[in-house]
Amino acid sequence: MYNPMDKDKLLEKYLQNKLTANERKQFEVLIESDPTLKKEVEFELDVKRAVIANEDESFRNLLAEFESEADSIENVLTEKKETSRFPTKWLIAASIVLIASLTILQFNQSSDPQELFAQNFEPYTNVTHPITRGESSNTAKTMAFIAYESENYAEAITLFDELYAVDQEPYYLFYKANALIQLERASEAIPLLKQHLQLDDDLTTNSNWYLAMAYLSLQDTENAKLALEKVVAANAYGAEKAKKLLTEL
Q1: Handedness of CA 135, 141, 146, 147 (dihedral sign)
Q2: Contacts of 77 (CB under 8 A, 6+ apart)
Q3: Which end of the chain is more exposed for a tag (fewer CB within 10 A), N or C?
Q4: What is the pTM of this model?
Q5: Rounded distance, CA 226 to CA 217, Å?
Q6: Which residues contact 180 (CB under 8 A, 6 or more apart)?
Q7: How far apart are alpha carbons 238 and 243 in whole angstroms?
Q8: CB within 8 Å of 114: residues ≥ 6 apart
Q9: How far apart are CA 106 and CA 24, in angstroms?
């Protein structure tokens, strides 16, 4: 019959895969006969899996630093003869994994404006002049939106310019700005979106979201935040995404 200290040593050797064949058989019998020990084994295996599963080099480096500190802590606790139902070393290991995981998570959170832009931007869907299958492109407006939907953004920009010059419809500014952002010409899109915000149509409340996207594309974090705050305050298009983005910037 093994005393608690024997169990602790066997558990540590088990987790390190250092048990002899005889010790392994004895340990398996112990696990089946001792529900508490079985739970301890499951707990420690979960800790070990968490370490192995994380292949991030920075995580492993950080973990090594924590483990060095943990060894010192364990020595102090051992000298004081403090006891625990869980082996001291593996309780420390569990804490290490938790701390290191949270630290790496914090460090790895994306705050690069262009990455956030790439993750969140997509040109606004054509809801103004939907194109039906087989529709003839016999008007300039239809041709412009066919080009937009076909992702022929350069042509769409030219056509939206011509259309806006004729009838001054605000939505042409909005769609042209979207096309410009997609073509990595965000600096040209910004004045159009600002102009659109001064006008009144069904898409006006959407412009702050795309203004934020344009600023992110240009790595202008401060102005992107201002635009996102306006989206959230107005509960406008993109409000939920805007809330999340504000926590990442």
Answers
A1: positive
A2: 88
A3: N
A4: 0.58
A5: 15
A6: 153, 157, 186, 188, 189, 192
A7: 9
A8: 216, 217, 219
A9: 40
